[in-house]
Amino acid sequence: MFAGFELTADLDYFSDYESHGLEIQNSHRKIFNSKLDNFKNSDGILEADKIIEEWFPPIEDAQVFLSHSHRDERKIAGLAGWLSAELGLTCFIDSFIWGYSNKLLRLIDNAHCYNKDKTFYNYSDRNRSTSHVHMMLSTALVKTMDSCESVFFVNTPNSIQVDKYIKGKSNTDSPWIFSEIATTKLLRHRTRQAHRRHVAIALESITGNESFESVEEKSYMNFTVDTSHLKPISERDLQNWAKAQSETPKRYSLDHLYEQKFGAEIHG
After folding, report:
1. Does pTM surpass 0.90?
2. Which domain of life is it from (predicted)?
3. How far apart are CA 15 and CA 40, in angstroms?
4. Helices 95-112 & 48-55 angle (0-180, nearest 10)
5. 145, 170, 195, 264 — which has fewest CB within 10 A?
């Protein structure tokens, strides 16, 4: 990751681009292997690396990672469509990967977690299977965030609780948002050039993800999140960014955003 931003905007502004955003994500669809036997080693043990590679493949040419509430996912598709149409950017929409974990978890549960009569799942076995799958998902998300040049956390009332935010505190009921924001503090800082070499190579072989399902159901826990390290950007900033790119096209449109928000501070 080169830079992280906290975006606050009216997502309805991008509604005209929703179908375009969905088309882009649908173009990355992949047919998954639903037979767990294909991921077993010679001892009959499932190999997590092979499962991650098959079920959670990255969008290799993505430049922007969009972290957001799954409740905003269709509007986020509009934002991704706008960033593509106006600025030529490929986005990774993180909620598109969540549905995979539910499908994978069900396969593992059906194969390994039923009781002898297959009438219900064993509680302890289900806990273990969920831990395994969510760790694989978390690993895939961190790798994708690391490979993207910029991370945009889209701050809406669905992602951060409004009453707490007004009082200067940021709370979320999403463990995934909490994890992703915390991860942006820990990711290695990579130069723009390093990211762009990676994307240039990746363009030769593009893979992706699809799904509007979510592993998030009813929440009963809050997480305190710190976004102070993320550069604030607004809907107006996005408009100015698109205008600058239109008037003075750059090969890498993100550079206009960096110049607007970092100015002389920009390095790498």
Report:
1. no
2. Bacteria
3. 44
4. 140
5. 264
